[in-house]
Design brief:
It contains 16 helices and 48 strands. The chain has 902 residues and is an alpha+beta fold. The structure holds beta-D-glucopyranose (BGC).
């Protein structure tokens, strides 16, 4: 019977989608209904607290060269209203505009806790309207502090409350945050799929609450809520250095459940002193040290109604951490995937070592059965010694050890809740009997950012690098961008954060993640404008090393370039200005000499003062640009002038005119000066010559930089017409290079160019050298935003050396931009996709073999006899530069350009 129902349902569904498709087919000519509707960068977000949220959508069109000429956005309070094409909350009307991202809500005031439904239609260049998009929704969180009736409570690491619901539940929401970590359970079931939640913040400043739709998990009659609490970053492990920020005595909970009954009655269940508490089966938990779980201490039914709680105590009031409550508006940390071990060995009696085949962040899931009270221990490591035992020297003081004590009632499956490790190998001891490969699974855990980019090329070394960059990047997203995932750090080190930011934005959808991180940075800013080396601040200094602090202006700026986010510039303008003014106060003679780390982990060190001063200039330049953008022309002039003064002082202080080098003449020094245009025009050639001869002759085509210099070296070479040399560095396989890491078994990027496995600082999962990933997309793929948010795109692939093809694709806020090319002597084929509502210039380099060129798009000629041939849809013009490269002006659409020698 059930099966019959399912098939009827299936047929019905197919029919409905057939109608949908055929509707679209009917409208097959012209603009397609907008897709990928986002609100504050998120899909159908629940619980946001931005009062004027921003919308974006992606357009589609059957024709090339299309733009949006107008849009209409409807926001309704009920889906039925929206279905009638009515926006009772906001009807934008037909707005003549090509804006399809960052569109600011401007309807009636949005109310706390309310769900809104929205859709959008767009007009194309001819004035034809698309159908409306499918509906999307967003929901507001609790907008004012007064609405929080809940009280911060603490006690043991288990908390529970039974309550009765006097009617059928129409709608229910849980709003929850914790100091540390929480797991919320309702009537025996975990709520949602977030783990290691809420996001780590400067708790004294801000706590992030999460909104869950719990309608289906509550019922008329008796109910029970159970919460498990973990220490997280709020109660740091004992061995943590002297606390810089507040440590809290214990984890604490703030929870409010709002229930609406059929008929409209409201009910609130909130954390307060009527809750009961006890210590649960988690007997210890620490991010660095791991978790111990004694299954014998489980209290079956503790999260169900009707439990005998006589042994539980009353919860205690916990001091509120003191900050504001904000909605958590970014991808939560989740279990992303499950990894099957590739190998199990038995290096010593009773010791089993599992190889997961990949270094990653997360934990292991254990399956076992055996006598009650048996303690099974898992220890985690990135490396193994030659004898097969795990090598834990790279994780320093982190104990990274999970222990599970068997309940003893048959097959048991367990995984920890409140810790995570960075590891490839797991050591299993204490196992009752002989384990198998199936005893353990790896659980990949990180912030659930969506992959948005891809890159591949004909050189396998590059593909190997791209792979370890992606692994290193995503496993270092744990609500803040971390330096590493395994040792006793895992901090939001700001230097690492900004050098990887562009790479991360090309590989993953980072918009909401960095929006949050930039606010985290603002939260640590002092009244004197200072910010800190790590955010939240637990390690390192205040004021930050300027090469670390620059994460504040730089990430804001990348957000603007990649996502067209002007609001982040507006919201941070004062903070950025205060920061730059602080730097200014430390540089009375226009040279900023304050430095802690400089070009960190370099092979040839560059003076820290030089690096700091270069970033001081960079920060001032960005501030001047932001001021101009925001129409603050007074400030724009002031900072432009300050920039000139810094440039002059920089050259006076650091340029060695005799040798034609900066500072000590390192690759980092010369590359930074050139990249930032700090070099006077008449000296550029000389400095460039010094740099390239240092690379080629001085170091046999190898890098000597740390993680600061490497961010700019390859882009600078490309910008200066030396993509061939940049490519040689990228494709290098001997020490020091990325390829050397791969040749030595790296599955994530190392912290050092050197292959070290001893007790020094040498993490094997540090994403910072992955900044080269941006160069893959921007140089080899050739895709860059020429106007913010890819409104105008430049596609200028660098066709170099022995590469026969490369392919890159970026999911921009306007849709997919991609470029993929093949090259053989005398011929280049370039496939390009430009999203609707963007335009692009496509630069086809001159093939060294080709003299007289013809370019075809499909079977039409677009360039012949040195001239543009009009007539190809979407291609509006073409010109040839002095270097022989061709630039084609195109609108949206997909193109296949073929360049051939006549
Ligand atoms: C971190 C780095 C960080 C550095 C600051 C290290 O311990 O792991 O990646 O940027 O300290 O110098």
């Amino acid at each position: 019977m059930a099966r019959l129902h399912t098939s009827i349902l299936l047929v019905a569904l197919m029919f409905v989608s057939f109608i949908r498709v055929s509707q679209f087919v009917a409208a097959a000519e012209g603009p397609l209904p907008p897709q990928n509707l986002r609100c504050e960068y998120l899909r159908d977000p629940l619980g946001i607290d931005v009062k004027q949220p921003r919308f974006s959508w992606v357009l589609g069109h059957t024709e090339r060269g299309e733009k949006q000429s107008a849009y209409q956005l409807l926001v309704a309070t009920r889906p039925e209203t929206l279905a009638q094409d009515k926006g009772d909350q906001w009807d934008s009307g037909k707005v003549t505009s090509d804006q399809s991202t960052q569109v600011v809500y401007s309807g009636k005031a949005l109310e706390s806790g309310r769900t809104y439904y929205w859709k959008i239609r767009a007009w194309d260049t001819q004035g034809s309207a698309s159908l409306y998009s499918l509906p999307a929704r967003f929901e507001m969180g609790l907008l004012s502090p007064q609405e929080w009736k809940a009280q911060w409570i603490a006690g043991g690491n288990g908390l529970r409350k039974e309550f009765s619901i006097p009617g059928r539940v129409a709608r229910a929401r849980a709003y929850i945050t914790a100091l540390g970590y929480y797991e919320l359970r309702l009537n025996g079931q975990k709520v949602g799929t977030n783990v290691l939640d809420p996001a780590w913040t400067t708790y004294e400043k801000r706590n992030l609450y999460i909104t869950y739709d719990v309608t289906a998990q509550l019922q008329q009659g008796p109910n029970a809520a159970g919460v498990m609490l973990g220490n997280g970053w709020a109660v740091p492990p004992q061995h943590f250095g002297a606390p810089i920020t507040t440590s809290f005595p214990s984890p604490a909970l703030l929870l409010q459940i709002e229930v609406e009954l059929e008929g409209g009655k409201q009910l609130t269940i909130a954390s307060d002193l009527t809750w009961k508490t006890a210590h649960g089966p988690i007997t210890s938990d620490s991010i660095y040290d791991g978790e111990t779980y004694d299954a014998r201490l489980e209290a079956p039914g503790w999260d169900l109604p009707g439990f005998n709680e006589s042994a539980w105590q009353a919860a205690q009031a916990a001091k509120a951490p003191g900050g504001v409550l904000s909605a958590q508006m970014m991808p939560p940390i989740r279990v992303i995937d499950t990894l099957v071990p590739v190998k199990m060995t038995n290096p010593r009696p009773g010791v089993y070592v599992y190889d997961m085949g990949q270094n990653f962040s997360g934990w292991a899931q254990l399956r076992a059965s055996g006598p009650r009270g048996t303690a099974i221990t898992l220890r985690f490591a990135e490396l193994v010694y030659d004898d097969g035992m795990i090598n834990r020297e790279t994780i320093r003081r982190a104990k990274a050890r999970d222990t599970y004590i068997l309940h003893g009632d048959g097959a048991e499956t367990w995984e920890p809740r409140f810790t995570y490790h960075g590891f490839r190998y797991v050591e299993l001891t204490g196992y009752p009997g002989t384990p198998s490969l199936d005893t353990l699974r790896g659980r990949l855990v990180h912030s659930a950012v969506e992959p948005t980019g891809s890159f591949a090329a004909s050189n396998p070394t590059l593909n190997g690098i791209q792979k370890i960059i992606r692994w290193g990047q995503r496993t270092n997203l744990h609500s803040v961008p971390t330096d590493c995932d395994q040792r006793d750090e895992r901090m939001g080190w700001m230097g690492d954060a900004h050098v990887t930011a562009e790479e991360a934005m090309l590989n993953f959808d980072m918009a909401a993640f960095y929006t949050n991180f930039v606010r985290d940075i603002r939260d640590v800013q002092g009244p004197d404008g200072t910010i800190t080396d790590t955010v939240p601040h637990k390690y390192g200094s205040r004021p930050a090393d300027p090469a670390w602090g620059t994460a504040y202006p730089l990430i804001c700026w990348y957000m603007y370039e990649q996502y067209g986010d002007r609001r982040i510039l507006e919201e941070n303008y004062d903070g950025l200005k205060k920061y730059v003014e602080f730097l200014h106060s430390k540089a009375p003679d226009n040279v900023l000499r304050m430095s802690h780390y400089g070009d960190w982990v370099a092979i040839e060190p560059t003076p820290g003062e030089f690096v700091s001063d270069a970033y001081y200039y960079y920060d001032v330049q960005i501030l001047a640009k932001v001021a101009a953008l925001l129409d603050k022309s007074g400030d724009a002039d002031t900072y432009k002038q300050l920039g000139e003064q810094i440039k002059e002082a920089f050259n006076r202080e650091f340029y060695d005119a005799r040798r034609g080098v900066y500072a000590d003449g390192t690759q980092t020094a010369n590359a930074l000066a050139l990249f930032l245009d700090l070099v006077s025009d008449d000296q550029r050639g000389r400095v460039m010559g010094s740099l390239t001869s240092d690379i080629v002759y001085g170091h046999d085509t190898h890098v000597t930089t740390g993680f600061i210099g490497i961010k700019y070296l390859l882009p600078l070479l490309t910008r200066s017409g030396r993509s061939d040399l940049a490519y040689d560095l990228a494709a290098q396989t001997t020490y020091p290079s990325w390829g050397y890491m791969i040749a030595n078994g790296a599955t994530t990027l190392w912290e050092l160019w050197q292959n070290k496995t001893g007790p020094s600082m040498n993490s094997h999962n540090h994403p910072m050298f992955g900044s080269v990933g941006a160069w893959f997309y921007q140089a080899l793929g050739g895709i860059t935003p020429e106007m913010p948010g890819y409104e105008r795109i430049r596609i200028a692939p660098q066709i170099v050396r022995d590469l026969t093809w490369a392919s890159a694709s970026v999911e921009t806020v306007r849709g997919t931009a991609s470029s993929s090319w093949t090259h053989s002597p005398g011929s280049i084929t370039l496939n390009v996709a430009i999203p609707v509502n963007s335009t692009a210039s496509v630069v086809i380099p001159k093939d060294p073999e080709a003299t007289d060129l013809t370019v075809r798009e499909g079977d039409r000629v677009v360039w012949e006899n040195g001239k543009f041939v009009p007539g190809t849809p979407g291609v509006t013009g073409a010109s040839q530069a002095n270097d022989g490269s061709l630039t084609l002006e195109v609108g949206s659409g997909r193109y296949t350009f073929k360049l051939e020698e006549n």
